[in-house]
Amino acid sequence: MTEPATTTLTEPALRTAPKVLLHDHLDGGLRPGTVLELADACGYRLPAGTEPELARWFRDSADSGSLERYLETFAHTVAVMQTPDGLERVARECVLDLAADGVVYAEVRFAPEQHLERGLDLDAVVEHVLEGFRSGESAVEASGAQPIRVRLLLTAMRHAARSREIAELTVRFRDRGVVGFDIAGAEAGYPPSRHLDAFEYMRAANAHFTIHAGEAFGLPSIHEAIAFCGTDRLGHGVRIVDDITVAEDGTATLGLLANYVRDKRIPLELCPSSNVQTGAVDTLERHPFDLLARLRFRVTVNTDNRLMSDTTMSKEMMRLVETFGYGWSDLERFTINAMKSAFLPFDQRLELIDNVIKPGYAVLIG
Questions:
Q1: Distance between CA 44 and CA 160 in Å, rounded?
Q2: 215 catalytic, yes or no?
Q3: β partners of residue 210
Q4: What CA–CA distances, in Å, run from 102 to 45, 71, 75, 97, 307?
Q5: Tens of pLDDT along 295-306?
Q6: Which residue, 176, 34, 153, is CA-closest to 96?
Q7: Residue 94, C-beta contacts closer than 8 angstroms, at least 6 positions apart
């Protein structure tokens, strides 16, 4: 009997594979054309006047090697996301773009406190984004394509003082499409423990949260996020590699923190392209993703900011395939890692793994 043929691993084929995305910023994934149209509608001046020029400006500006300079690009996307129409459109297009790339489940995050300049309050900001998600999900289902579920993470800015307020907002909306809380922004000088009251509130409410840690600042940030704050996942967490020593023969020795992260199966929301852009790693070839994967950390593949990194989940996976030689089975494992780590109820995670992810990869593996 002839064995079924394995589908050749190309980017077009990758787009058909079911994917799970845990770390994606709503204000980092706008379509360049949408930024132009929304800016024109509200009278906001952009650094470029055509779609190709603007896309190139975002990509080049993000390629600075500095997290702080990378974050400066968000001033322009946030500026055009201050109205109900703007928020709903961006959220809807986010769902459509992810679905077109084969994403079946995504947790998309944004900071409501940054969208109050035109009179909206925090609750209204969240409601409009959720309405955009619902509209996008309905449009995908109506098209006959593979359905997608998109849930929201609410982010507090670590340099500000509204984290407890945003944590309360998260809990208030947790039965309406918000599944978790996050803090983000420049790590240096703003440790996770600065927001301890917000994390204590989340734990008391039996609510999920992730923390941007170990992207630019290193092991102390990761240690605080876990030991003091009790995070469920690590946003990036790439610098956990600083607690791993690799001998000349390839043998790896894990320090206490790295051992704990692996033993506890704390998910790492790794974003390969973004990690290179912000200087968290020098090159993709030197990214510790492969080392962490071989050591059986719970690694997941993510986009971070699709506009700034000019990327998609398919592109991120293809770059890993080209760099580290992964096959379909590896990508299936990373996808299941992500689904296991999602802030969905267990039965819903299992349903997607058994009924969508495994069957989808079975077709590709042959």
A1: 25
A2: yes
A3: 233
A4: 34, 27, 29, 9, 18
A5: 999 999 999 999
A6: 34
A7: 24, 26, 29, 108, 132, 133, 136, 150
Between the alpha carbon of residue 235 and those of residues 56, 82, 145, 161, 270, the distances in Å are 26, 26, 30, 20, 7
Q: Give the domains, in start order, of the chain with CATH numbers.
A: 9-363 (3.20.20.140)
Binding site for substrate: what residues are annotated? Answer: 25, 27, 185
Q: Which of 93, 107, 137, 215 is catalytic?
A: 215
In DSSP notation, 329-360 reads HHHHHHHHHHHHHSSS-HHHHHHHIIIIIHHH
Is-above-0.85 flag for pTM?
yes
Q: Which residues pair with 269 in a beta bridge?
A: 235, 300
CA distance 60 to 46: 15
pLDDT, tens digit, 9 for 90 and up, residues 180-233 = 999 998 777 778 889 999 999 999 999 999 999 998 778 999 999 999 999 999
Q: Exposed, middle or buried by CB within 10 Å (0-12, 13-18, 19+), for 334?
A: buried
Per-position DSSP letters for 212-275, written without gaps between them? EESSSS-HHHHHIIIIIT--SEEEE-GGGGGGEEE-TTS-EEE-HHHHHHHHTT--EEE-HHHH
Q: Whole-angstrom Cα distance, residue 147 to residue 102?
A: 9
In the chain, the amino acid numbered 103 is V
